[in-house]
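A reminder from the course coordinator: this example appears on the midterm review sheet, so study it carefully.

Given structure:
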């Protein structure tokens, strides 16, 4: 599975499951969004396996995305989860910081985990390079490609003008041609970067009514390191406890995939967040829109029972289901480059499918 296919599925509700295997990590990257250390929480292996084993051939996500922390700290679990997912027809991707790459030769357990997945991604940016040299990551990528596993690099920089990003893209193309697609984003002021990263530029004042702005981050359920299953992968939602009620889908200790999937698809509020976005939603129902952007507006929904009841009357039936499905169809048809123009660093969006020529 190539990166472009994976990203192309990202706006499709329940097409994927994001699973944080651990909040632990041996690296100390200055921008780490999850502030990972070697002491963080991690869900029980049995609960994660039970969840993935509950996938059925006709009721499963297309993609299981394993993240952390550092998922390769649980390399045997990566291999076991990928095997269980494959039995149901689900493909698995893993994102690692490659802490093990600094030494030549891939440790046997980690090699087995890498060969068990359908896509292997490495985080590589200025902050990771202080921990794991670029040459070591490139050596690892060559080994994984030689094993026949598709790879990608996930990078972040300070913005489109960051010279590090243009240098990294040039070096990656020189070393691998178009064999290594890249997902390139911007460092956000969350986790360890909260103290120093620049906040995104203020958005222009919203028009009246505010534009429709579907939130695709509510499409794939997310298993947080404490086992809570959330509808949103935004780090602030993943970290916040109690989590906003409308973003909670369950817990790995108690819920199977069919239950989580049904909750994600049938929630009127989630349908509308995915179809029109929270700011448009609040304005449409005459509710005050707090300053601070989409996520602040979204979180304000959890304290407003009356508003959620009104949304339920509009989006609880077939109309809400249709709106949700249509919004996903439109975003999927626009493709992964369009998706990353919204959610990544726009000027590098085409690196998700290097060599692909967009028609004018
Ligand atoms: S708008 Fe809501 S669902 Fe979307 S990223 Fe923000 S908190 Fe998550």
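Designed residues:
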């Amino acid at each position: 599975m190539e990166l472009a296919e994976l990203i192309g599925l990202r706006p499709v509700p329940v097409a994927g499951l994001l699973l944080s295997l651990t909040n632990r990590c041996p690296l100390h990257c200055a921008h780490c969004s999850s502030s990972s250390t070697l002491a963080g929480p991690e869900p029980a292996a049995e609960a994660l396996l039970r969840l993935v084993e509950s996938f059925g051939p006709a009721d499963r996500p297309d993609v299981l995305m394993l993240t952390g922390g550092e998922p390769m700290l649980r390399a045997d679990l990566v291999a076991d989860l990928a095997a269980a997912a494959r039995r149901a027809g689900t493909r698995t991707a893993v994102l690692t910081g490659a802490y093990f790459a600094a030494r030549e030769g891939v440790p046997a357990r980690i090699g087995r985990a890498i060969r068990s997945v359908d896509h292997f991604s490495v985080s590589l940016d200025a902050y990771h390079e202080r921990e794991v040299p670029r040459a070591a990551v490139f050596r690892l990528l060559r080994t994984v490609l030689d094993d026949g596993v598709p790879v990608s690099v996930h990078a972040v920089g300070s913005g489109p003008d960051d010279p590090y990003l243009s240098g990294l893209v040039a070096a990656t193309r020189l070393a691998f041609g178009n064999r290594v697609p890249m997902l390139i984003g911007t460092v956000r002021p969350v986790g360890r970067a909260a103290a120093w990263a620049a906040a995104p530029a203020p958005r222009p004042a919203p028009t009246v009514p505010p534009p429709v702005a579907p939130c695709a981050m509510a499409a794939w359920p997310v298993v947080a390191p404490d086992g809570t299953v959330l509808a949103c992968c935004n780090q602030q939602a993943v970290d916040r406890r109690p989590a906003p009620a409308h973003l909670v889908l369950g817990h790995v200790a108690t819920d199977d995939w069919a239950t989580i999937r049904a909750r994600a698809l049938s929630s009127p509020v989630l349908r509308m967040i995915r179809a029109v976005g929270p700011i448009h939603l609040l304005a449409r129902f005459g509710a005050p829109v707090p300053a601070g952007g989409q996520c602040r507006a979204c979180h304000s929904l959890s304290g407003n029972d009356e508003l959620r009841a009104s949304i339920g009357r509009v989006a609880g039936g077939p109309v809400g289901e249709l709106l949700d499905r249509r919004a996903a169809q439109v975003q999927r048809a626009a493709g992964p480059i369009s998706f990353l123009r919204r959610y990544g660093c726009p000027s590098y969006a085409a690196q998700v499918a290097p060599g692909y020529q967009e028609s004018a």
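The first strand starts at residue 16 and ends at 20. The mean pLDDT is 93.
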